[in-house]
């Protein structure tokens, strides 16, 4: 897995700032960025007390990286919010966490639009608890389709309670999103986007 360094992180941050459009950011790339920040922090922690210059340089680099990464993600969050308000779906690749954020905000925004509509129409009703809904019912499991870039020789129990695997390189499978997240970040799998998903995203 090729590393991403300071210059690549700075470039990604500057490119995201320079446009109103949401740019591509996959889980694996973000993971590499965070890994580089962790590497710098470890280097700083290992610097001896007599090497003040090196400590100063690494401290400043870590601070710069923290600022750029945080600002990058905040800029992307603002862009995702803007897309929801404009009624558009993101055309760029997002991390799974960003996709969850988009879906959550879209649902909240849609519900609020309905609230405004019914309020103006004079048809607003008090919300009632649904007796058919069990408070302890399990959360809905979300899935993602992935292509395996490496062999996974051991089967695992997914969050859905089902056994998945083992998998061979180039296998395509649908697995729980939370189980896929670490593999997306370390390059074990890549997401598979089908044509109908691309069409819905407006690409």
Would you give an account of this structure?
- This protein has 2 domains: 6-112, Methane Monooxygenase Hydroxylase, Chain G, domain 1, CATH 1.20.58; 141-203, Ribosomal Protein L9, domain 1, CATH 3.40.5.
- The longest helix is centred in the middle third of the chain and has 34 residues, at 52-85.
- 14% of the residues are buried.
- The strands form 2 sheets. The chain has a 3-stranded antiparallel beta sheet with strand order 4-1-5, with helices on one face.
- Helix 1 packs parallel to helix 3 and helix 3 (52-85) runs parallel beside helix 4.
- The protein is flat and about 75 Å long.
- Strand 2 and strand 3 (163-164) form a beta hairpin.
- The protein is built from 6 helices and 5 strands, in the order ααααββββαβα.
- The model is unreliable at 127-138 and 196-203 (pLDDT under 50).
- Helices cover 53% and strands 9% of the residues.
- The protein is mainly alpha-helical and 203 residues long.
Q: Which features does this protein show?
A:
Methane Monooxygenase Hydroxylase, Chain G, domain 1; disordered C terminus; 6 helices; 2 domains; single chain; two-stranded antiparallel ribbon; three-stranded antiparallel sheet; flat; Ribosomal Protein L9, domain 1; 53% helix; mainly alpha; 203 residues
């Amino acid at each position: 897995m090729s590393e991403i360094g300071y210059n690549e992180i700075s470039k990604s941050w500057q490119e995201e700032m320079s446009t109103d459009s949401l740019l591509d950011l996959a889980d694996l790339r973000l993971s590499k960025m965070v890994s580089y920040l962790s590497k710098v922090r470890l280097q700083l922690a290992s610097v001896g007390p007599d090497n003040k210059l090196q400590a100063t340089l690494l401290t400043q680099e870590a601070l710069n990286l923290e600022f750029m990464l945080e600002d990058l993600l905040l800029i992307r969050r603002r862009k995702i919010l803007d897309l929801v308000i404009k009624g558009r779906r993101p055309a760029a690749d997002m991390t799974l966490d960003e996709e969850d954020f988009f879906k959550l905000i879209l649902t909240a925004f849609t519900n609020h639009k309905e609230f405004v509509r019914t309020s103006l129409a004079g048809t607003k009703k008090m919300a009632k608890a649904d007796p058919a809904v069990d408070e302890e019912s399990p959360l809905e499991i979300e899935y993602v389709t992935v292509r395996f870039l490496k062999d996974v020789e051991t089967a695992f129990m997914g969050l859905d309670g089902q056994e998945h695997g083992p998998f061979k390189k180039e296998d395509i499978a649908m697995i729980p999103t939370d189980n896929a997240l670490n593999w997306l970040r370390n390059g074990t799998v890549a997401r598979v986007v089908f044509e109908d998903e691309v069409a819905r995203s407006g690409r």
